[in-house]
Amino acid sequence: MPYKVNPDSFGFLVTDVSRLIRAEMDRRIGEAGLGLTAAEGRTLSHAARAGVVRQNVLAERMGVEAMTLSATLDRLEAQGLIERQPDPTDRRAKLVHITGKADEILERMAPISAALRADASLGMAPDDWDRLLDLLKTVRATLSAAKSELAAKESTPE
């Protein structure tokens, strides 16, 4: 008898919710007339969240290839929404940071995100939604700590 995969396991649920949120946010950003593609809006949000960050780190956090991100950053830079500067600790690396002009776009995106969160939480009591967010933060912290421990072990000579 073939192995039966649980479609409601943690990994599938998180992946499905992430995919659905991303698709809906992309659709709403596209309809909002912000002058951005969905990828540009996503990148701008992630850059704002990260603060000044190396381009390769931003790509990793977003789960995209560095070359894909580079093209998106080129377009955002041409619009004056981000700036890239050499990293003073590594001349080969570029630091990405948002500009004041990006703040205007991010402010216009905020109600779109808020409406999507409201739609996603329909049928849930506010306390349940808050508890869900707290639980997800715990999972994120646990997985991040495990990743850091593994990286530390791998970089320590035996």
UniProtKB/TrEMBL annotation:
Domain HTH marR-type as annotated: residue spans: 7-141
Spell out the InterPro entries in the cross-references: HTH_MarR-typ, MarR/SlyA-like, Tscrpt_reg_MarR-type_CS, WH-like_DNA-bd_sf, WH_DNA-bd_sf
Which UniProt keywords are listed? Answer: DNA-binding, Transcription, Transcription regulation
- Output the SUPFAM superfamilies linked to this UniProt entry: Winged helix' DNA-binding domain
MF GO annotations: DNA binding; DNA-binding transcription factor activity
Give the GO terms filed under biological process for this record.
Answer: response to stress
What the entry lists under Gene3D superfamilies is as follows: Winged helix-like DNA-binding domain superfamily/Winged helix DNA-binding domain (1.10.10.10)
Q: What is the protein name given in its UniProt record?
A: MarR family transcriptional regulator
Species in which this protein is naturally found: Pseudaminobacter soli (ex Li et al. 2025)
